[in-house]
Amino acid sequence: MSTSLRPVPRAPDADLSPELLIRIHNLMVQARVLEERLIAMYKQGDGYFWIGGPGEEAFNVPLGLLIQKGQGPQFDYCHFHYRQSATLLAMGADPADSLRQMKNTATDPYSGGRNFSNHYSKREWNVCPISSVIEVQYSMCIGTGIAQKRAGGRGITIVTGGDAGTAEGDFASCLVWSSRPANPLPILIIVTNNKWGISTASQGQHGEKRVSDRGKAFGIESRTIDGNDPEVCYREIAAAMEYIRTERKPFLLEAMVSRLYGHSSASGANAVPDEADCIKGFEKKLEERKLLTRQQMDEVRQKYMQELQEAHKKIRQEPQPKGDTIYQHVFSDRDLVRGG
Amino acid sequence: MSNMVQAIRMALHVAEERHDLTDVFGEDVGPPLGGAFTATQGIKCAWNSPLDERGIVGASIGLGLAGCRNVAEIQFCDYAYNTIDLLKVAGMQTWCSNGDWNVPMTVMTPVGSGIRGSIYHSHSFDSTATHIPGFKIAMPSTPKDAYGLLLSCIVDPNPCFFLVPKALLRVRNQPGEEIPGEPGDDKALSKMIDAPLGDRSKWQPRWPDTPDMFIPFGEGRTVRRGRDLTVVSYGRTLPLCTKAAEELAEEGIEAEVIDLRSLYPYDWERIRESARRTRRALFVNEETEITNFGEHLLRRTVEELFYELEAPPRLLAGAFVPGIGLADNLEMASVPQLPSIRDTIRKLAREQP
After folding, report:
1. Are residues B113 and B243 in the same domain?
2. Deepest of A271, B103, B191, B198, by most Cβ within 10 A of its Cβ?
3. Cα separation, B76 vs B125, whole angstroms
């Protein structure tokens, strides 16, 4: 059984530093503005499809800040889903590159115009290609987890999916394989629970009270947290990661989040008024604590809106991939992942 | 001389010793069984997985993404069908990342009929595999080819299928087709690398010193030269085609037989050169006949060689039925056997406008 040799460290109660809170806020706003720009691009005909993560910034920004980014098993492997622009920005990605993928330009560094918006891939940071299929990452993460367990060190595998995707068998595969008594794996298994699967409410489909309860049957340390509070998220993710980095065992973390613009452009990509907005809640706290004024926060938003508007104009002029490139990269000539 | 199972084992041993093979895994792959067909006995990096094909393929992709050369076994290809979208994902990692990632991984799985495996142990997988771009696909019909093709799969930086015709797993190398370094005496080899019955906990294999041998993808083998027609096959039906050709030589029909060995990429130059010379072509495999890989080869033959042919090219394949029935007569009627292959070759060789 994967019972801990020592207890999971409790998330510390201590306040995060003002500098860190301001940085988190800054990234959350940048990510929200990016998603709003991507939606605008879609609505203006500068993209065929939008899907993204407005409403998940309070969880995704702390996650991105805590990831040990780099290439190879000593760094964290990331098996993300398509709602994690905020994670990528917190890791240091250029938001303009997200616009390039939306516009499917040849300059899109993630797929060269081949994949949907927010389908990132960046080997330099161990960000594995994101698939539109909502469950395969829960199976694929097993392999990087095995490689990291064998390699030793503090590198961990991080996998993220939504609550609806946990109905797929791959989620069960992840729970079974990561907790095998023969070889428990250092995997942070994340479920961002927005309570929806496209247009279907989870309450009619899922009888389990919490998704995290499923981890308990496998002896996996499991927790459900408020994914709309970035301070809670930062502390809980940090504690879970430290447990995994040192114990080399899995941890299941369910974050309750909002879905502020629906599933995707397929459902209109319009603002949903009755869901909690994590940025509004966080800004109220920052104002109360006198860490930022309303005016300062408005200026942050204005700055990013301006930057992305200008980037959008520029990217509109960038070239599309040529049709005769479709046969490129069907196969790899070199073994890039082995350093060949 | 080795049989195909032993040749696979020797290739895995060479790969784990010299080519950074880190994991051979799947259901019952590790000790004590060493594989349902014993193909992984004695391999140090072989381990048992949960009974979960999606987990097996997913883990294989993840290991590949982490740079670990691995062989993932699906115990029977019949059980790979619930992994199709993961196989699609494996095949597209390089393409969808615009060349940023590659996935070194090999999916090894026994295929086809021949052991009275009934409905869920007799499927073929060549048509499904060739519908998944991004994979290289090998399918041997001799132990020596199994050895050389499996090593090529393991060191390739891309996802590979290694399809093993289960009917040929106990077939031995022909004289002159030995793997260099293997003992000529069957019993001597068996004593060295076959796990004993009973308690195996203290058993250690003694591996013969066999060399690196890489049979390139896309390189078929002309098994038999002939002037009257070209027969292209692979896997279980290949030796049947060769035998039929030898028997028909007594009737004055000289069939050329090509073992494709690699289904993607495939040796079109060899097929084209042969078919242009013989002016007749037959494609034989045991996959169900509708949207069959042989149909692709046949279509290309028609499109490129139509005016040079003397008869319509033919496909002899499995019946389009949901499964292969257990009873002897049912299996024999479902997939090509020696008589039907012989009859089809004879008919095509003698066909006149």
Report:
1. no
2. B103
3. 10
Among B174, B193, B212, the domain boundary falls at B193
SS3 A189: strand
Mean pLDDT value across residues B243-257: 98
Q: How far apart are CA A151 and CA A73, in angstroms?
A: 7
Query: In the predicted model, is pLDDT for residue A1 greater than 50?
Result: no
Q: For A2-16, B236-250, B307-321, which range has the lowest pLDDT when averaged over its residues?
A: A2-16
Scanning every residue of chain B, which has its alpha carbon at the shortest distance from the alpha carbon of A168? Answer: B54
Same domain membership, residue B188 and residue B239: no
Nearest to B96 among A115, A122, A177 (CB): A115
Residue A240 in tokens: 């879970």
User: Cβ separation of A147 and B157 shorter than 8 Å?
Assistant: no
* Domains of chain B: total: 2
Domain containing residue B334: 221-350
What is the extent of the structural domain holding A186?
Answer: 18-318
| Order of strands across the sheet that contains B255-259 | B221-224, B255-259, B229-233, B281-288, B314-318
In a domain, A340, yes or no: no
CA-CA distances (angstroms) from residue B184 to B188, B196, B257, B352?
8, 20, 27, 47
Count CA atoms within 13 Å of residue B211 on its CB side.
7
Contact A121 B96 (CB under 8 A): yes
DSSP 8-state symbol, A322? P
Which parts of A156-277 fold into alpha helices (H)?
169-178, 213-216, 230-247
B318 φ, ψ (degrees, to nearest 5): -75, 155
Residue type, B293: F
Q: What is the mean pLDDT of residues B227-247?
A: 98
Q: Are B61 and A143 in contact (CB under 8 A)?
A: yes
Report the pLDDT averaged over residues A113-138: 97
Secondary structure string (H, E, C) spanning B79-99: HHHHHHHHHHHHHHHHHHCCC
Q: What is the DSSP string of A83-107?
A: T-HHHHHHHT--HHHHHHHHTT-TT
User: Would you mind telling me the total number of residues written for chain A in this entry?
Assistant: 340
Q: List residues bridging with B172 in a β-sheet.
A: B3
Q: How far apart are the C-alpha atoms of A244 and A253, rounded to whole Å?
A: 12
Is residue A328 included in any domain, yes or no? Answer: no
Phi, psi of B69 (to 5 degrees): -70, 125
Nearest to B89 among A131, A331, A338 (CB): A131
Q: What is the mean pLDDT of chain A?
A: 95
**How large is the C-alpha radius of gyration of chain B?**
20
CATH of the domain at B143: 3.40.50.970
Read off the CATH number of the domain in which A178 is found.
Answer: 3.40.50.970
Return the structure tokens found at A293: 């004024």
Q: From A139, which residue of chain B is nearest by alpha-carbon distance?
A: B58
**Pair A178, A142: CB distance under 8 Å:** yes
Residue B217 CB contacts under 8 Å (≥ 6 apart), including other chains? B136, B138, B152, B156, B262, B264, B265
Helix %, strand %, coil % of chain B (to 5): 40, 20, 45
Q: Are A163 and A199 in contact (CB under 8 A)?
A: no
Cβ contact, residue pair A143, B65, below 8 Å: yes
* Residue B79 touches partner A, C-beta closer than 8 Å: no
B85 vs A contacts (CB less than 8 Å):
133, 136
Asked if ipTM goes beyond 0.85, one says: yes
Q: Is residue B212 part of a domain?
A: no
- The phi and psi torsions of A108 (rounded to 5 degrees) equal -60, 115
Candidates A19, A51, A27, A56; CA nearest to A38 is A51
Which of B23, B27, B49, B102 to mutate against chain A (most A CBs within 10 Å)? B102
